[in-house]
Design goal:
This protein is 30% helix and 21% strand. It contains 18 helices and 29 strands. The strands form eight sheets. Strands 7, 8, 13, 14, 15, 16, 27 and 28 form an eight-stranded mixed β-sheet that branches. Strands 2, 3, 4, 5 and 6 form a five-stranded antiparallel β-sheet that branches. The longest helix is centred in the middle third of the chain and has 20 residues. It starts with a strand and ends with a helix.
Length: 693
């Protein structure tokens, strides 16, 4: 089998039309009298590629509708793939309601069915006249101890934790599927894990970073500790932790026998410096120290709790080699876990096992508040318009996500990106992340913080804004280059730093050269990856097949391939450019020093000789571009996950967790902290709501 080196330079493809139908050749119907019979296929374009529907027509009537080709994301599209074909047959029309959360897939299926009907020679006006749109039913009232709004990772965690406290729990989700943005997350969970770190070897570059922290002073102006004096103690504690670590490992050498290092103070310091940002008006913002401490101190327990309910996690002993640094994490404390659809399936199963009742396609519209100001339930609406009142004896947990799928809202509040954002900026988010929970909480007096800051995921698909069509792993092993084949940024930096650097380039497009951990030989050099490697089910082979990447078994072949359009990008790299940047980076890895950009942790040297001498190993190139990924702001909470009002007092009966909240990540969230956040505060919110009276 031919292999591709995970020296992956990740890809741009031509903008995909999501509105037009790709017409199939007209198929001649078999006629019985004046009516047609036969099997006819139509095609359109969905989010991830072609969608084809085959109609069986018997004497002018559709008797079967079958999806014969579909590349849409599993989990997100399941309901649409089942419901739309069934309703086409039932109602003899392709004019139907879209499925919530799967609008693009729904429309693609209906367009493909219309194309098939056209090929069958059917009367399109008659089919359109049969249009079916669900009508609202009678209003309903449901009761529970705890009502959880949102079926992503935070909501499912909260519902499980509340049920474990003995409470009756109802969870509502406005989409047709559970998972929210957690389903799209890449499997990165940050947690301080001394046991796993002890099995690692501290690199020379990491020791240089720790030494630089020892040289810091609480009076350093660029640390802004005069504005946030509560964080000075964290720096002092961190310096004590590092000195104690050095003393305990006296006589050991970094890069050889000195073990890895991490501490609560180091994670907190990264949260502080990673989130310390200046707004456009000159103000500086920083993370709430109490929330940051709760996250750093509780993340490992949250990771273990996730494992206890069935999530695939690694035990601490023997997990040293599995720790890595996801993009923007700043330190190798990132743990792998079961991610994507399998994670959501595990969480759903755990919730149902605990007795949680789940309603999808049920959107919260407002919070119910009694005369004493206590939240006692939720007003909601089903997809067909049916009104639902959900009574909550203990209260409500908001876990409805952020608003990066609402770029107009992001732009409305933005105080950071300025002209780099528009109300049409692409997003990595599922389409239902539109800020509903934040708005509902504001309507009853909840305070908010940080709404002016959103995070751009720098290495997203330039076509769709999603994190698909690329390969992800350790930031220490990535090489980022511009269209001239030159590095332009410290790849180990925070995500907003990376995004801002990339946005200065031509059309914001850049290229990642990546040598993958876990796929290297003992000498630490990249030896190649199989065609099955990829992300979210997208393999390297499918990226090649769909024209998202360039490929060459040698640098010369790769350079030649880059002269042709791959998704409209034609940087036309030369062999010399590619060889120069790779060999230069290899020398930095060897010397554990990056004189160009000061990259703190260097790994992933690429064995060009081995690659070019092996015809079964190749190199891939593709462009990337920044898109909206995570909103830093939301409702204000305390360490018990209670939502606070403008006076800083808890709103009785209301808790929140996940991206609907603000204050934890300040101006920039570290990569890998989102999942730690949703499990940690989801569990806290659920436990406190579950035992409330």
């Amino acid at each position: 089998m031919k292999k591709f080196c995970l020296s992956v330079i990740l890809a741009l493809a031509m903008t995909m039309s999501l509105t037009g139908c790709s017409q199939t050749p007209k198929q001649e119907p078999a006629k019985t009298g004046d009516t047609m019979s036969g099997v006819f296929t139509g095609t359109s374009t969905g989010m991830q590629g072609p969608v084809s529907v085959q109609l069986t027509v018997e004497e002018g009537k559709i008797t079967k509708a079958e999806v014969t080709e579909c590349h849409e994301t599993a989990g997100l599209s399941d309901v649409a793939l089942e419901r739309i074909p069934s309703q086409i047959v039932e109602h003899q029309t392709f004019d139907l309601d879209t499925v919530t959360g799967a609008t693009l897939c729904s429309n693609a299926l209906m367009r493909a069915a219309e194309d098939a009907a056209t090929n069958a020679g059917m009367d399109l006006s008659a089919l359109k006249a049969n249009a079916y749109h669900a009508a609202a039913g009678e209003a309903e009232t449901l009761s529970a101890d705890v009502v959880v709004v949102g079926g992503g990772g935070a909501g499912l965690s909260a519902s499980i934790a509340a049920a474990q406290e003995g409470s009756k729990v109802i969870l509502i989700e406005k989409s047709s599927f559970l998972g929210g943005d957690t389903m799209m997350a890449g499997g990165a969970f940050n947690a301080v894990d001394p046991e796993a770190q002890a099995e690692r070897v501290l690199s020379e570059a990491q020791k240089n970073t720790l030494d630089s922290y020892l040289a810091l002073s609480t009076t350093d102006a660029d640390l802004h500790l005069d504005q946030f004096p509560e964080w000075a103690e964290v720096l002092t504690t961190l310096q004590s932790d590092i000195q104690a670590f050095y003393k305990a490992n006296a006589g050991k050498t970094a890069g050889k026998d000195m073990p890895g290092f991490d501490s609560i103070s180091l994670h907190m310091w990264h949260i502080y410096t990673g989130g310390l940002r200046q707004m456009n008006d000159g103000r500086w913002i920083a993370s709430n120290i109490d929330l940051a401490r709760t996250l750093a101190e509780s993340a490992l327990n949250s990771y273990d709790w996730a494992g206890s309910i069935g999530v695939g996690t690694a035990s601490h002993a023997g997990a040293g080699d599995s720790l890595y640094t996801v993009l923007g994490a700043m330190w190798p404390r990132t743990h792998a876990y079961t991610a994507g659809l399998p994670l959501i399936q595990v969480l759903q199963s755990a919730a149902e096992k605990e007795g949680v009742t789940i309603y999808t396609e049920t959107a919260a519209k407002s919070l119910i508040v009694d005369d004493n100001g206590r939240v006692t339930g939720v007003k909601a609406e089903k997809a067909d318009g049916t009104e639902v009142t959900l009574e909550a004896g203990h209260g409500v947990v908001l876990a409805s996500g952020g608003y990066c799928a609402n770029p107009a809202m992001v732009k409305q509040y933005d105080e950071y990106w300025g002209d780099d954002l528009t109300d049409r900026t692409l997003t990595t988010n599922v389409g239902t992340n539109t800020g509903d929970g934040i708005v509902m909480a504001m309507e009853i007096g909840a305070d908010t913080t940080g709404l002016g800051v959103s995070q751009l995921m720098p290495s997203s698909s330039p076509i769709k804004g999603t994190m698909t069509d690329g390969i992800w792993a350790d930031a220490s092993e990535q090489i980022w280059i511009n269209g001239q084949g030159e590095r332009f940024v410290d790849e180990y930096a925070e995500r907003d730093v990376l995004a801002k650097a990339s946005l200065t380039l031509d059309n914001g497009i850049f290229y990642i050269i990546y040598a993958g951990s876990g796929l290297k030989e003992a000498d630490g050099l990249c030896k190649g990856a199989s065609l099955e490697e990829g992300l979210f089910g997208t393999t390297v082979q499918s990226m090649v097949d769909n024209g998202h990447v360039w490929y060459g078994s040698t640098l010369a072949e790769l350079a030649e391939a880059s002269k042709t359009a791959a998704g409209g990008a034609t940087p036309a790299f030369t062999e010399e450019q590619l060889r120069t940047v790779i060999e230069k980076y290899n020398s930095y890895v060897e010397n554990q020093s990056d004189p160009d950009f000061g990259k703190e942790v260097l790994a992933g040297a690429i064995d060009l000789e081995a690659i070019e001498n092996d015809p079964n190993v190749g190199i891939v190139i593709s462009p990337r571009k920044a898109s909206l990924h995570h909103t830093m702001g939301g409702v204000v909470i305390n360490t018990s996950a209670e939502v606070l009002n403008a006076e800083g007092q808890p709103i009785e009966g209301l808790w929140a967790a996940g991206e609907v909240t603000g204050g934890i990540h300040a101006g920039n969230r570290l990569g890998g902290n989102a999942i730690a956040d949703i499990f940690t505060f989801g569990m806290i919110a659920g436990q406190n709501a579950g035992k409330a009276q």
